[in-house]
Amino acid sequence: MNADEERQFREFVAARSRSLLHTAYLLTGDWEQGRDLLQTALASTARRWSRLRDREQPEIYVRRALYHAQVDRFRLLSWGRETVTDTLPDQPSGQVADWADTVVQRQDIMAALRRLPKRQRAVIVLRYFEDRPDNEIAAILGVAQGTVRSQTHKALTSLRATLAETGPSVSPCTASGRGVIA
């Protein structure tokens, strides 16, 4: 990588790392694992920066690298083997209860999201947390737009069923603040 390419790469990382970290967190469900995932994807991108065909859209390449790195890590490290409990250790009272209910709802949604298969989770993150259209999601994941729509349908059905069992008072479609999908 020459000096000009390194400058371009550093500018890209400075401008987009916050959004990319948020995506990595949503894919992993953990900030530290998300940081590691983003670091892996950016290292991969840096190695290929001079060969990227379209310098105007490197973000698609990085997001694809994030998704693939997450799938690889899941396979290698057996992520997702968590112990889920039905009850919280302490019950808060008063005003803290409202805040605690919000936290519990968010935890329920994140737990349900982590239970989704990797491709379904990626589709939900890209669509509802990043507001990406089907064609961009298809490009990032390297699949057809029809696959994006079918994976979205399957994921929402699964999330609704999971959240109905745990009983949070929010819909999986409103969890990101994007509104309900008909």
TrEMBL record:
UniProt keyword terms in alphabetical order: DNA-binding, Sigma factor, Transcription, Transcription regulation
Pfam family, one: Sigma70_r4
Sections of the chain in a coiled coil: none
Gene Ontology annotations of biological process type: DNA-templated transcription initiation
InterPro entries: RNA_pol_sigma-70-like, RNA_pol_sigma-70_dom, RNA_pol_sigma-E_actinobac, RNA_pol_sigma70_r4, RNA_pol_sigma_r2, RNA_pol_sigma_r3/r4-like, WH-like_DNA-bd_sf
Sample GO molecular function, one term: DNA binding
Domain RNA polymerase sigma-70 region intervals: 112-161
Family indicated by similarity: Belongs to the sigma-70 factor family. ECF subfamily.
PANTHER family in the cross-refs: ECF RNA POLYMERASE SIGMA FACTOR SIGM (PTHR43133:SF50), RNA POLYMERASE ECF-TYPE SIGMA FACTO (PTHR43133)
Protein name (record): RNA polymerase subunit sigma-24
Organism: Streptomyces bungoensis
